[in-house]
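>> received
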Amino acid sequence: MGIEGPFWRAIAVFRVASLAYAALLVLRAGGYARPAVAWALVGVMAVWTVVTLVPRPAARREPLLAADLVVTAGCLLATPYAQSRGDMLAGAIPITATWVAGPVLAYGVARGRRAGAVAAAIMSAADLWLRSGNGVDLASIPVNGAVLMFMAGVVVGHVARLAREAEERMRRAARIEAAGRERERLARGIHDSVLQVLALVQRRGAEIGGEAAELGRLAGEQEAALRALVQAPPVAEAPDPVPPPGLRGRLRSPARPRRPLADRGALSESDLTGTGPAEPEVDLRDLLRPYGTSRVTVSAPATPLPLPAESAREVAAAVGAALDNVVRHCPEGARAWILAEEDGGAVVVTVRDDGPGIPEGRLEQAAREGRMGVARSIRGRVADLGGTVAITSSPTGTEIELSVPVRADEGNERRS
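>> returned
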């Protein structure tokens, strides 16, 4: 039943109490002008109250809600068959009394505040039509009941929506906590076994030298990557898997491979206009952490860096291309640093190395020779996202700064 259970139980109590109040009004009025009809209406109200109490919340779908609204409005409009014109002119309230608010509350809980307001409008319109048809001056009719029904439908619908959102957050937090406990358990086991062995291989390889030193270096990289993996905070939903990269040319792009245009089929209207469903967001930190090795340091804030999934993959792929350039053009033992942060509505990722830098005019020469690594793999990817790339180079190293807007529409405005 979930968080909605208390709401439905409260509505059930309200219906029963309102039914008892309606029966009390009929009893005090001596059955009005036509007692048989009045008590028959009370009987119909009692039967429908029982019907609404039987189904579970999962069964309270549109047919039952619509039937609830129709039956309640019908009982309200049947009041003139029990009350006389004199009763109406004397200010007697309809037989249904407060019972008419039942479907308003039900719509608010099941469909939200807008549906609750619409149900309140329908019931208020039925009440006004009933009174105007019996010669009552509309200007003299108090609107307190209609206002209270509107407030009840809107407030209850809003509170029910907030309660559902809070329940979902609690479930997500529970999943994250369970994943964190499992991660800690695995981390303890890995630290006592695999990480210790990798650290030993790295140390002994460095002592022996030769080919063993290369083996020790690889073990050190794997130790750093595995340590970063087990120390990373858990996420509610894991992003697309990223192959663990090294710093020796084994970097692979985390971006999802694109299908050829011929295989994509006809484009829908939402593809052409950009009005399709919003793409889910991914925490960019989860795509950058696998790049961390013994010679690549990844630094990110404690708070998430959300980006649309495709944008996050493209940024991570651009970072991988920048690290590939470190492997190709920097001497053995060069280090690299990745810094990710959010700055004024944009996510900024900086890749810096301590290599010899890019000679002046080298990028232009590479473009003329047809080597478009920086132009396409880095600048092209970021430009497609509406972002910018700034490259700063000196004899002490190169720094590549990628800036991508958090919202896709901001990127579109920049390109236009």
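>> The longest strand covers residues 397-405.
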